[in-house]
Amino acid sequence: MRRTSLSVKIFAGLVAGLGLGLFASVSGRPWLIGLAAGIEPAGTIWINLVRMCVIPLVAFALVSGVAGIGDPRRLGRVGVRTFGFVFGTIVVAALLGLGLALLFVPLAHISAETASALRGAAAASAQEVTQQAQKVQGLRQFLLELVPTNPVKAAADGALLPLIVFSVLFGAATGALEERPRKVVTDVADAIVAALIRLIGWVMELAPVGIACLAAPVATRFGYEMLASLAVFVLAVMVGTTLFAVAGYGPAARLLARVPLVRFARAIAPGATVAFTTTSSMAALPTMMDTATNTLKISPGVSSFVLPLAAALNRPGSAIYQMTAVVFVAALYGVHLTGTQLATAVATCFLMTFSIASIPSATVFTTAPVLLAVGLPVESLALLLGVDRIPDMFRTGLNGIGHQTAAAVVARGEGEEIAL
């Protein structure tokens, strides 16, 4: 009942925040706009409370979980199942995004004057896009940085994937120790994880207020006008992510994890809502781990391995976004994409989803290599950046659903029962 009640409260906080922001935007009253925008620091404080738990939770949970798995063969199976699920869903998501974009974008009639004006606006903001796109890691750099030279620095920088690599290796080494030293390490890690989960529980009691304070300024700042110029693009992303959540992850949860869909959706709602509102899988990770351990009753070995890895790699929402962006930009510039170009875009999109940098609106900027792969101008991303908040919420919310579905599927594959 506590979990169900919290889900309802979080949703109510989201609706209240969006309602306040939209009402303030429509009314145009300065005092109301000031109120809706002025509560943002309270939301920022709450999200900082959540984020401060992420790095230590990931590190110690992984050490404990991997050491608890013990058998290298079982660890290998869990890893293969996780990567297989992540890779498969990203490919399907990219193809879905491409199909919906080819269906939706032609419905938007872009006149020559409108297209010229939009291209001009993109060119005017091209400098910022170019600077940020240069920060995007290439595949070679991404692979090199998987192994941290200093795991403490990786933790301080919030570099989740290198920290995961170190923690998995350290956990595997711990599992290979004699029983007495192994128990010392795992007992300490388990105690720290338990304390962090208790702390996260306290923080999550504030979630409805924190989420409302984050949602209200966004709605105030953009209002209904944010969808005016790029409505079809935004709508295609929204439809694609929603459809994939229902028609992609729904059957996966029902057929592979073998869980009742309604109860599963209710259980994972808090983590998905935090991801949706904060546009950060990392910020939602503590909530998702709490749900996996205490609500779904997934073993710590599986949940502490799969969820951090999925948060670092699993981005089907980004795949949908990037393929939609390719088709939209091509239509804007009057470029007809061939089948070969579309296949190239899908392949490039698949690779880029694994190397998204920790920068604001990272998916937008990592779309640059996908555009370049098919010969489209990068400066067009400036237009998409201007209306990115809503697509960002939907794609991150989808990712949050995917992380938790992956944990349930892998746990079921390992013979565990999901407590629903």
CATH class: Mainly Alpha
* Count of individual helical segments: 22
Radius of gyration: 22 Å
Span between N and C termini?
13 Å
Structural class: mainly alpha
**Gross CATH architecture:** Orthogonal Bundle
- The CATH topology, please? Proton glutamate symport protein
Binned strand content: under 5%
Largest sheet: none
Please trace the helix and strand order, writing H or E for each element: HHHHHHHHHHHHHHHHHHHHHH
SSE blueprint:
Blueprint: H1 2-27, H2 30-38, H3 40-51, H4 54-69, H5 72-104, H6 112-124, H7 126-133, H8 139-144, H9 151-156, H10 160-175, H11 179-204, H12 207-222, H13 231-256, H14 261-278, H15 281-295, H16 300-313, H17 316-332, H18 339-352, H19 362-365, H20 368-373, H21 381-386, H22 389-413
Helix pairs in contact: 1-2, 1-12, 1-14, 2-12, 3-12, 3-15, 4-10, 4-11, 4-16, 5-13, 5-16, 5-17, 5-18, 5-22, 10-16, 11-15, 13-17, 13-22, 14-15, 14-22, 15-16, 15-22, 16-22, 17-18, 17-22
Task: Please explain how this structure is put together.
The chain has 420 residues and is mostly helical. It has a single domain (2-413), classed as Proton glutamate symport protein (Orthogonal Bundle). It has 22 helices and no strands. It has helices at residues 2-27, 30-38, 40-51, 54-69, 72-104, 112-124, 126-133, 139-144, 151-156, 160-175, 179-204, 207-222, 231-256, 261-278, 281-295, 300-313, 316-332, 339-352, 362-365, 368-373, 381-386, 389-413.
